[in-house]
Design a protein that fits this description.
Low-confidence stretches: none
Structural class: mainly alpha
Number of strands: 0
Strand content: under 5%
Largest sheet: none
Length: about 200
């Protein structure tokens, strides 16, 4: 899709005439990158290094300290990489919800793929399906996420309201993950639970 989009944009989308003054916040970009690499690197390697490892906690600690410095830098530069004032104006709860829903939607893909691929006779758990079937099931999950995202705005503007639509999303997710644990059943049934979680 990107291969198609790039020439279309290059040849058919006119150049903007609106120009804004500003500079690239190189310091903010470097600090954010190093901070996130430290925290996420420590968390993602904790299973290899061990959660009690000094390397794990040093990586997380240094990353967190760099992110604190990044916040101070972003508050002092004229053209910040991330405008932290925007986050403060009523955006904290929506951003927290986005993090929580995003973490569960994207974080579940790896364990589900491993469960689908695991052979019950060898591992004692799993569905033992092929990589192609696993990919198709995860594609259905992604499609369900797309459908859910497409209708969420309409639900939030309806009688359901924003808190109601968030509660519905949380309820569907919790029910789907609970059913995956209690009644994994067959691959089609597991795919159904993933679709419900995606919605």
């Amino acid at each position: 899709l990107m291969t198609i989009c790039l020439p279309v944009v290059y040849f058919l989308v006119p150049e903007t005439t609106v120009r804004k003054e500003g500079t690239v916040d190189w310091a903010g970009g470097v600090l954010l990158t190093v901070g996130l690499l430290g925290v996420l690197g420590g968390v993602s390697n904790a299973s290899t290094w061990g959660w009690t490892s000094a390397l794990t906690w040093s990586s997380i600690g240094v990353g967190a300290a760099v992110l604190v410095v990044w916040v101070f830098v972003e508050r002092r530069v004229q053209h910040p990489l991330v405008d932290l004032d925007v986050i403060g104006r009523g955006m904290r709860v929506p951003m927290l919800m986005a993090v929580l829903f995003g973490a569960q939607l994207f974080g579940v893909q790896t364990p589900c793929a491993l469960f689908l691929r695991a052979v019950p006779e060898t591992n004692g758990y799993g569905m033992g399906v092929t990589a192609s079937v696993t990919g198709l099931i995860l594609a259905l999950f992604a499609l369900a996420m797309f459908v859910g995202a497409s209708v969420s705005d309409r639900l939030a503007r309806s009688a359901l309201t924003v808190p109601g639509s968030l509660a519905l999303g949380a309820l569907l997710s919790a029910a789907a993950y609970g059913l995956m644990i209690v009644v994994p059943g067959s691959a089609p049934l597991f795919a159904l639970w993933l679709v419900v979680a995606g919605l």
